[in-house]
Write the structure tokens for this entry.
Amino acid sequence: NYKKKNKVFLLFFSILFLSANFFYCFLIINKRLGIKKISLYFVIKIISPKIDINRFFQNEAPEKIIHDLIKLSNPNKLEKTIFIFPEGVLSTIYLQDLKNYSYIFSENYSDQHKIIMGINSTEDKKVFNSMVVLDSSLNILAKYNKNKLVPFGEFLPFENFFRKFGLKKITQGYSSFSSDVERKIININNINFVPLICYEIIYSGKINKTNSDFDLILNISEDGWFGNSVGPYQHFSHSIFRSIEEGKSLIRSANNGISAFINPKGQIINQIKSTERGVIEIKSFEQTKKTLFSSFGNKIFFYFLLFYISLFFFLKKKENR
């Protein structure tokens, strides 16, 4: 029912908007303006161990898994390296128990090494799903407690009520995990990482709570809970979107999932399939300026909605005249 000139105006505006988006993407991003390559004076190793998910329901000896992880990571005592292990690789012990195995780590790693891994920890009678940064003697250099917990997997909704019927979360342990509220940037060797555990990677626009500048997104995960399904692939695809939105390279270490190194444009530089085990080595990465989305997040879609509603009422009012 619109008049012809209004239809022409809408068509012209739509073409102009799409063209602007097209040229921004292909002329600016593909020409790599604002992107610079950062060479590292150390190596980052992404470890993808492919440890069976059944260990969560068995009392498997931690020594065996630790030796397997060390063998796969193949540490060179003279090479400055950051080793990144997935979430929950040592499912039968807590962070406080890890010191009992420090002799194994100190024999194989040196003061040139830092180790990042996912492990459960306890504080003030609370249990956390944590990411820790350790030295070769297993001293804690940094620690992050997961903010977003998986319902039923890590905590039981209305737990006080359902526990009366003997119900619990499906993962190991009886009590639910506790969530933390802070997500601080982790600095390792003068490189700033945003830490994300498991499905925290799916929360668009909410990964950098401090709004501080950072260099890399770091995601560790255990995807064995998905089994032989599309789950690990869906989970991985979210990682690609987060790297594009934030304009940052992304490191992902997953057990029974897809481990990968992704650049700021969402291109997969290297990956290890969910059915395989292996190591990805990183010696450089691309760095960009803050993206529009990293500054405004999902508010952008609200602004678009407000604009189109205003445009609709403007045209309607004009037509009524």
